[in-house]
């Protein structure tokens, strides 16, 4: 179920490009779009909590601390860095840099949680990064548009993105993941509030052609995506594997871009999409291999103890 939750999170995240494009056409800035994603996502989660169990709105001081940290770093600061990476070097370069996040997740999970890195994990990780480059660029990347500022912001965005599972793993045993996301979304939205033109935003909300995109953005790429992702992390799957599986988002994003948005889909992108699917399969295989190896190690230790 953990793999399924992470895969669903990737599928929901793949709608970001569709909703962002539609909202940008409505005249909203990138910061306003990010604010709507977090604020509407928070509102949806609050409404669900009130209906299901109002007690989910209660949170401990420790849980609130972690939620605020996640909101500041992985929501507010992440959006700020990613937006600036796009402005400095373009969306393709920013996306490629963002998809290096599985590398940082693997490193952090190794250092902090002592996760083992076997050969299959390394193959999966390298395949994932190559697949992302091919699928995003289609084999053509304007290197002249790359700036040092864009690279710095892009890498910072990838690091901040990778911190979400690393930080949340510490608290999910004590705090409901829905509760944690409510307060982290709220923190992130408050961080962006100074960059919002509420006259323009309110005009978009009252536009019946734009409103479904605002609701869909908050629901699918906001609330549902993060709830599924944190559910997968909570299930106990290795974070390094979760990072690769979540990148399956790129497969669905390319399909949406091609079928709905009319974006070009060449042979190189097809190879990238196929390699991304291969990297996810190899990641799951590496987890099973690691499980068998751990079981054998435990068996050997048991024999030594008995002796």
Question: How would you summarize the topology of this molecule?
Answer:
Layout: H1 2-13, H2 16-25, H3 30-52, H4 61-89, H5 91-98, H6 101-113, H7 119-137, H8 148-168, H9 177-192, H10 198-205, H11 211-234, H12 239-246, H13 249-259, H14 267-306
Task: Write up this protein.
The chain is mainly α. The chain has one domain. It has helices at residues 2-13, 16-25, 30-52, 61-89, 91-98, 101-113, 119-137, 148-168, 177-192, 198-205, 211-234, 239-246, 249-259, 267-306. Helix 3 runs antiparallel to helix 4 and helix 4 (61-89) runs antiparallel to helix 8 (148-168). The protein is globular and about 45 Å long. The two termini are 38 Å apart.
Number of helices: 14
Q: Give the number of DSSP strands.
A: 0
Unreliable residue runs: none
Rg estimate, integer Å: 20 Å
Query: Gap between N and C termini, in Å?
Result: 38 Å
How much of the polypeptide forms β-strand, as a percent range? Answer: under 5%
Give the overall form: globular
Structural class estimated from helices and strands: mainly alpha
Q: Please trace the helix and strand order, writing H or E for each element.
A: HHHHHHHHHHHHHH
Give the mean pLDDT.
85
